[in-house]
Amino acid sequence: MFKLIPTDEKFFDMFTQSAELYRKGAGVLREIANDARTLKDNAMRLERLEHDADQLTHEVLVRLDRSFMTPIDREDIHRLTLALDDCMDTIEAATNHMVLYGIKNVNEPFQALSEYIEAQAEQIVRMMPLVKSLKWDLVRPHCIEINRLENEGDRVHRQALGNLFAGGMDVLDVIRWRDIYGFMEGATDKAEDVAGIVEGIVLKHG
């Protein structure tokens, strides 16, 4: 009987929309890394994108509550929706703190982390339309690349922290950049969470 009841395939489209918003946000972050003078304007752009992402997340969750049949398990839809939203929240938190701390210039670790974040966002955008297929071999290369980029982000983060605490830097600057690096590295972790959830979905349902 349940096979005769259509499932709501719109969720897959909404995942892709969320991923696209995140890619735009990661692109804005990259613009800041390329030119710190754009920080305030781009932080406002990112805030608007984060608002759009929150609205989309709300729409997905409302749709989930109202759907009788879903194409994949409800808890997986819920987890993936929130994980995608967390990605955007984390990079917006990074730029918010940069504005709060009055950052005037960016450095190499920030630039490298922004590059990894943007690359992960690109992989998420490419991967998301493939979730519908529920085929592990299609999403696997993207998951592997997202995980590799997260490992690179960890490496840069560790080195950056080591340099911060090596001495010779103003204590307040150490605190500022420690926090900013933390958000940036956290964003790479959030993207890895998305990949892990997608892996679980395709392995479960494929």
Summarize the structure.
With 206 residues, this protein is mainly α.
In round numbers, the mean pLDDT is 94
| Tally of DSSP β-strands | 0
Helix % is over 70%
Contiguous low-pLDDT stretches (5 residues minimum) are: 1-6
Taking the sheet with the most strands, its summary is: none
Find the CATH superfamily.
Phosphate transport system protein phou homolog 2, domain 2
CATH domain topology: Methane Monooxygenase Hydroxylase, Chain G, domain 1
* CATH architect. name: Up-down Bundle
What's the structural domain tally?
A: 1
Q: Which secondary structure elements does this structure contain, and how are they paired or packed?
A:
Elements (H helix, E strand, L loop, with lengths): L9 H25 L4 H28 L7 H27 L7 H20 L8 H29 L6 H35 L1
Helix pairs in contact: 1-2, 1-3, 1-4, 2-3, 3-6, 4-5, 4-6, 5-6
Structural commentary:
The chain is an all-alpha fold. The protein has a single domain (9-205), classed as Methane Monooxygenase Hydroxylase, Chain G, domain 1. The protein contains 6 helices and no strands. The protein has helices spanning 10-34, 39-66, 74-100, 108-127, 136-164, 171-205. The chain is elongated and about 60 Å long.
From the structure above, extract its key features.
Methane Monooxygenase Hydroxylase, Chain G, domain 1, 6 helices, 80% helix, 0% strand, mainly alpha, disordered N terminus
